[in-house]
Amino acid sequence: MLKKSLMKKSLLWLSVFVLLLGVLVGCSQQTAKNENQPAQNSSQELALKTTYPLTITDDTGTKVTITKEPTRIISLIPSNTETLFALGLEGKVVAVTKYDNYPKDVQKKVEYVFQDGLNPNVEQIIKLKPDLILLGSLNKKELTAKIRELKIPVLQFDPQSLDAVYQTIEKVGLVTNTQQQAKEVISQMKEKEKSIKEKLAALKPEQKVRVFVAVSPDLYTPGKGTFMDELITKAGGINIVEDQGWVQYNEEKIIKSNPQVILTTYGYYDKNAAANIMKKEGWQNIDAIKNKRVIDLDSDLVNRPGPRIIDGLESIAKALYPDLMK
């Protein structure tokens, strides 16, 4: 009897031990799993670290080798400056141009401000000892060649579409070892693009408005194949200009095409841009004039192919379809 009792107790303790062991093993596995989780995250972060030397192809088709992580960067075009600051590289940008006005006080945050970004003083560039220079499509080939002779890495970017802007941000992130930040910036931009698309989804083809964009008082305008044309299309509009590229448009063609909305982008130097369009002789019967739908857009948002271009797209969509974009 005593033997049986002892056996029962032994079995009971054995059961409890096995149960506790199972709990402990489970906890141990969970702990191990939790401990491994940061390691997985670390490996993901490591995967986004840039390894140098790095060879990258810019928009001119030139292969450029970056030997180490850049710490002294010169940007000679506003869109590139905005990209660099969006990636958190404020402390590594040593020079910009007088046209760079974003982020706020950007010119106070650098060592030098070039008065002419298209033809900067090469001697001043040398004094700044840059290890990376970012250019745009407007910079002359001669400048690029001169800088490359000095063995300074130069990258020239000329994105002509929203997808190309995403690719440029990705490349700048790769070159500057800010891939994670670039990934986050692009993700936020794409999320906003998706939101705009969803708001315009209810738009029927017959509801799409005809649009004319004036980028200067003498009626220079973006035609097919331009960045601005893509933005108009993505914003649900129809560009009345059928010509390819940037053209000076004929007033008779504008009157005949009868745009329902006219957008101007030169209000930064002509505060009466929209008002002057409204008063144009012979334009009184254009729908945009009759319905007072002449709107001046922030030129920096719609003309600079950087992170804020998505805000430019939103501003166009709001100008065309204010009710849908509420």
From TrEMBL:
The keyword Signal applies. Keywords: Signal. PROSITE patterns: FE_B12_PBP (PS50983), PROKAR_LIPOPROTEIN (PS51257). The keyword Signal applies. One of its GO terms (biological process) is cellular response to iron ion. Residues 72-324 form the Fe/B12 periplasmic-binding domain. Pfam families: Peripla_BP_2 (PF01497). CDD domains: YvrC. Belongs to the bacterial solute-binding protein 8 family. PANTHER family: MOLYBDATE-BINDING PROTEIN MOLA (PTHR30535:SF34), VITAMIN B12-BINDING PROTEIN (PTHR30535). This is Iron complex transport system substrate-binding protein. The lineage of its organism: Bacteria, Bacillati, Bacillota, Bacilli, Bacillales.
